[in-house]
Design a protein that fits this description.
Blueprint: H1 31-60, H2 68-75, H3 78-102, H4 107-110, H5 123-140, H6 142-145, H7 149-161, H8 164-195, H9 200-213, H10 218-238, H11 241-264, H12 269-296
């Protein structure tokens, strides 16, 4: 006796209550981050040198002799200082945007340029807290790592020697451009990918160290590190690089205002640091309030 026709029994099907297994989401690769870290700063420096060279030729013409005398001459021109700041930020932007455009996900999402629902009302507090925290550490750290006056003095001299147009370009570059570019590189491209693979403390810590070292001065890096950690926490908790961009931009703007006021009134780097110390006294409660509000809400998903 023949058995029943298997086709007549109909196709086999899973019980309706059996969950369908789905593959876990692919973990992002880390090697692009390491490429950005290894080649990012050299590329930014190369673009900076190129822009400085073009600016020097535009101002003084092609040099008859490329010697030390000529290099000393052009390095003291305010326009060259402005070009160096702008060139470095342009180089960093290339380092972040090009890999983001090659990513399978939208470039703006890859860089964390997404909404920050639920944090709109507290963002101004985070911005104030950024400047407050920066001022607090500017008072504490000189006792351990020395004064940042050597780093600030050339910047103050550039402001003093520049024309109003050059000052405007320098301020725009050091606030808006630097705040945007450095955040999409460090908190956007690097930190977001590290957070997908590493523990939070390690991802934010490693990104903050790289951010500090990118300022090209080991002594000044100690002052930048606390700022980098705070900006990393803001970007992580809010889930958006826009928030850390706003905080970074506001901090740089306030710092420029203090430096500009000091330079225009003839104050030196030490006097400006004393001015920041006075601001730090009032900044302590603001810094604490901002930190508490940042951690009151859950991490944005």
């Amino acid at each position: 006796m023949e058995g029943p026709d298997s086709d007549a029994m109909g196709p086999a099907s899973s019980p309706p209550d059996q969950p369908v297994e789905t593959a876990p989401p692919a973990r992002p690769r880390l090697w692009p981050v390491f490429l950005v870290v290894v080649f990012g700063i050299p590329v930014a420096v190369a673009i900076t040198i190129l822009i400085m060279g073009v600016t020097a030729v535009a101002l003084d013409g092609w040099p008859a002799h490329l010697d030390r005398t000529y290099l000393d001459h052009v390095s003291n021109l305010p326009s060259i200082a402005v070009a160096s700041v702008a060139g470095f930020e342009i180089g960093l932007a290339v380092v972040a945007v090009v890999p983001a455009l090659l990513s399978p996900e939208p470039w703006y999402h890859r860089l964390g340029l997404v909404g920050f629902k639920g944090y709109g009302k507290t963002l101004p507090l985070f911005m104030l807290g950024t400047f407050a925290i920066n001022n607090v550490f500017s008072v504490i750290l000189p006792r351990f790592v020395g004064s940042p006056g050597e780093y600030l003095s050339p910047f103050i001299q550039t402001i003093t020697d520049s024309t109003p147009f050059q000052q405007g370009v320098l301020i725009l570059t050091a606030t808006v451009v630097a705040g945007f570019v450095e955040e999409i590189v460090f908190r956007g491209y690097i930190q977001r990918r590290l957070l997908a693979r590493w523990p939070v403390w390690l991802a934010i810590g490693a990104t903050s160290v790289l951010f500090a070292l990118a300022h090209m001065s080991l002594s000044y890096a100690a002052y930048i590190l606390p700022l980098g950690i705070w900006l990393g926490l803001v970007a992580w908790r809010t889930g958006s690089t826009w928030c850390s961009i706003a905080c970074h931009l506001f901090n740089n703007l306030m710092a420029i205002v203090v430096l500009y006021a000091g330079a225009m009134t003839g104050l030196g780097a030490k006097s400006i640091l004393k001015m920041e110390a006075a601001l730090a006294v009032a900044a302590v409660p603001i810094a604490i309030w901002a930190a508490v509000m940042l951690f009151r809400k859950p991490v944005a998903g």
